[in-house]
From TrEMBL:
Annotated coiled-coil segments of the chain: none
Start and end residues of each Response regulatory domain: 33-157
Domain EAL as annotated: residue spans: 494-748
UniProt name for this protein: Response regulator receiver modulated diguanylate cyclase/phosphodiesterase
Keyword Phosphoprotein appears in the UniProt entry: yes
PANTHER family recorded: CYCLIC DI-GMP PHOSPHODIESTERASE PDEF, SIGNALING PROTEIN YKOW
Entry-annotated residues carrying 4-aspartylphosphate: 88
């Protein structure tokens, strides 16, 4: 068939009715196809003769001939553009024609083709019965189809086919639009969406396969986002430097005026989203678009705008979900997602270093300069992070003062990373208001490679880096440490230790040792410190340095701290009831206890329940605990002083404090840490520090207790420096309650 047009298949692109609605000069490229089905050769001959000069809308008829129902089926299977069937009822069987109707309508699901039933034996297929039962469009006897009536019948059928085809073609066009829109809606990134947008436009427009999408960049220059066909190599280029003059002119006009621009060979239309994204789409045409195509194109563009808005919305949500809003780096979620991608895409030979970088003592920095200024420091460090190393896979802020790096150190495009140099390069000084804040960084590092990726998860990799970070902190900070498998064993051991501690509190496995304190003026017992100890039911004694830190980390210190406070008060009351006048007993208090919210009430309640006079209880706190929240600490100390207990600052000189707060805290005692006492007779610096603390305390009206006194020389120099009391193994190790009272009585009798 000349003109070879495709009218109908399920896979056809919509808007393909170009030949049905062609201009007059295109009339010779299209014929209307009619299928004549009859077993009588004379009918074929006469039909061919009658319709030889027939035209409809300027297009002639092409006849296809079948002499049986089976031949007709072959024609229908091979030609999906048949507009009209002239069908005989009786052929090889009396109902062959009727069965062919069922084949066309039901099996082929062809509802467009017009069927004109012609019969020479009306009695075999009565008109009313046939029209009622079968989907036919006309019923004629062969004798009544004169030339004029055949012209009329065929013209009516073709007009009906044309109208039905347009309706169905528009429906198919809308269905195609919905399918395309649905597919576009699946894209969550602008690049993928725009690329597929170009593909879809080429697929359903009468395109010459040339298309491109243009937008303005941040410099207001028209840049090509993607191209197809001969324009496919233009992606990323500037429109004014890469496009043919005619195309550039149309694109420029659409961009400048914000209107669609069409001519016989080109179509330019625009998409404008709610997010102010503005795209111009160019498609090269094989022929002009007709009115229906433009209407359907409007529908498609409206759906495309919705899809692009969805992309913008998704990207905004993703930005919120994966970007740290303070530093604008990626956040922990992005870091985990990137790790998952690396694990899934791992090739043999690939290796990555995953680094957890933590700012040392950032909590103290925040306390010093305030959270608002602390945020400025974090932003300064985030900017610094981006510039200190070449080609990281990703840099993210993974928690408050922790930053995550991933470097590729093995495989294609790997870098040679000197970790020690990298760790040192992270050091910086952040200047905020009047402060110059030095930032030291501790690193925890783990390796991800083809050997461990199959059994790794993103979470486990981050955990390993964190375990290495914690080990590095234990090593003294401002350093780095690689993950080792034994760290997992330590974590497991710690978890088991915490479980055992919970049971120990419930089962009464905790007990108290008391270490006496002595007045240097008269060498008498002037006080004692209650020290928590743990003996398991099997008799195993767990050293305090092993379980006290785990109590602090797990929060069990609150319950255990209340227990030892109550136990010390009860024990002192038992001694006093047995006839000893007693001395003040000191109990260490943790940060978790102090800021639990009701600590003064707890102390008051214990004193009331045990009957111990408030003046017989001394509470010891470290200076760093106080500095966590100075104003809150001042308020709590004031409440405790109103109760009547004494307050002591433990390990003074080793933590972080401000002398301006000392008087406000109304403290009774400063305790010099044993680290300054150990070499006080050998190092002049330690002696100067001890003397300074003693003088400072006395000037504030406080007494001083020196810890870690182990020799007579320690005692002598501390007497010389004016220290009030001492505590240490020179006098006595920590003792159980029965041993302590025996020790006190023995000294009294001596």
């Amino acid at each position: 068939m000349s003109g070879g047009q495709a009218i109908r298949t399920d896979d056809d692109d919509f808007l393909i009715d170009d030949e049905f609605f062609a201009d007059e000069d295109e009339a010779d490229v299209h014929h209307w196809r009619l299928l004549v089905v009859d077993d009588d050769e004379a009918i074929h001959t006469s039909t061919r003769f009658v319709l030889s000069d027939f035209e409809y809308r300027g297009n002639s008829i092409e006849l296809l001939h079948a002499y049986s129902a089976d031949e007709a089926k072959d024609h229908l299977r091979n030609n999906d553009d048949i507009a009209v069937i002239l069908l005989d009822v009786v052929m090889e069987t009396d109902d062959a024609g009727l069965r062919l109707i069922e084949f066309v309508r039901n099996e082929m699901d062809n509802k467009d083709v017009r069927i004109i039933l012609r019969t020479g034996q009306p009695g075999v297929a009565p008109e009313w019965e046939v029209i009622t039962r079968y989907d036919i469009n006309d019923y004629k006897t062969k004798t009544e189809l004169t030339q004029e009536k055949l012209f009329t019948t065929v013209t009516t059928a073709l007009r009906s086919f044309e109208q039905l085809f347009e309706i169905n073609n528009n429906r198919r066009g809308l269905e195609k639009i919905m399918t395309c829109a649905g597919e576009l809606m699946q894209h969550r990134d602008a690049e993928g969406f725009i690329s597929r947008l170009g593909d879809h436009l080429i697929s359903f427009l009468p395109s010459n396969q040339q298309a491109l999408i243009v937008a303005r960049d941040e410099n207001d220059q028209a840049i090509i986002l993607c191209g197809r066909g001969d324009l496919g190599n233009c992606a990323g280029a500037l429109a004014d430097q890469s496009l043919p003059p005619a195309v550039h002119e149309m694109v420029g006009k659409a961009l400048e005026e914000g209107i669609p621009v069409f001519d016989n060979a080109h179509a330019c239309f625009h998409l404008k989203t709610q997010g102010k994204r503005y795209l111009v789409i160019y498609v090269g045409l094989e022929r002009p678009l007709d009115g229906t195509e433009r209407q359907l194109l409007d529908v498609f563009c409206a759906n495309a705008v919705i899809g692009l808005d969805n992309v913008d919305l998704f990207q905004h949500v993703r930005k919120l979900a994966f970007q740290d809003q303070l530093t604008k780096l990626g956040n922990r979620s992005l870091f985990l997602e990137r790790l998952r991608t690396l694990i899934n895409d791992m090739d043999e030979g690939d290796e990555y270093l995953v680094i957890d970088a933590d700012l040392d003592h950032f909590d103290d920095i925040n306390d010093l300069i305030g959270q608002e200024n602390g945020d400025i420091v974090l932003k300064d460090f985030a900017n610094h992070c981006l510039g200190v190393a070449a080609s990281p896979v990703v840099v993210c802020r993974i928690s408050g003062d922790e930053f995550g790096y991933i470097f590729k150190t093995g495989g294609e495009n790997a870098i040679d990373l000197d970790v020690a140099s990298f760790q040192k390069s992270l050091y910086m000084v952040s200047e905020v208001e009047a402060y110059a804040i030095p930032l030291h960084v501790t690193l925890g590092i783990t390796r991800l490679n083809a050997g461990n990726a199959s059994r790794a998860t993103a979470e486990s990799i981050m955990r390993n880096a964190w375990l290495a970070l914690r080990r590095a902190k234990d090593m003294g900070r401002d350093t780095f440490c690689y993950y080792e498998a034994e760290m997992d064993e330590e974590v497991q051991a710690r978890a088991e230790l915490v479980t055992d501690l919970r049971k120990a509190i419930d089962k009464g496995e905790l007990f108290v040792h008391y270490q006496p304190q002595f007045c240097l003026e008269n060498d008498k017992v002037s006080g004692m410190e209650g020290l928590m100890r743990w003996r398991k039911q099997d008799g195993t004694v767990i050293p305090p340095y092993k379980f006290i830190p785990e109590m602090e980390r797990s929060g069990l210190i609150v319950a255990a701290g209340e227990w030892i406070l109550r136990e010390c008060c009860c024990q002192m009351m038992r001694w006093m009831e047995d006839g000893w006048d007693g001395v003040p007993v000191s109990v260490n208090v943790s940060m978790h206890q102090i800021f639990a919210g009701d600590f003064p009430e707890t102390v008051s309640q214990i004193l009331e329940e045990t009957g111990l006079p408030a003046g017989m209880l001394k509470l010891e706190l470290t200076e760093s605990v106080i500095m966590v929240d100075v104003q809150e600490a001042i308020a709590i100390f004031s409440q405790l002083k109103q109760i009547g207990v004494e307050l002591a600052i433990d390990d003074f000189g080793t933590g972080y404090s401000s002398l301006s707060y000392m008087q406000q805290l109304d403290v009774d005692v400063l305790k010099i840490d044993q680290s300054f006492i150990k070499h006080v007779t050998e190092r002049r610096g330690d002696a100067v520090i001890a003397e300074t603390i003693i003088t400072l305390a006395h000037n504030f009206g406080m007494k001083v207790i020196a810890e870690g006194v182990e020799t007579a020389d320690h005692v002598n120099i501390l007497k010389t420096l004016g220290c009030d009391q001492v505590q240490g193994y020179y006098y006595s190790k920590p003792l159980e309650a029965d041993e302590l009272i025996a020790f006190v009585r023995a000294r009294a009798d001596a």
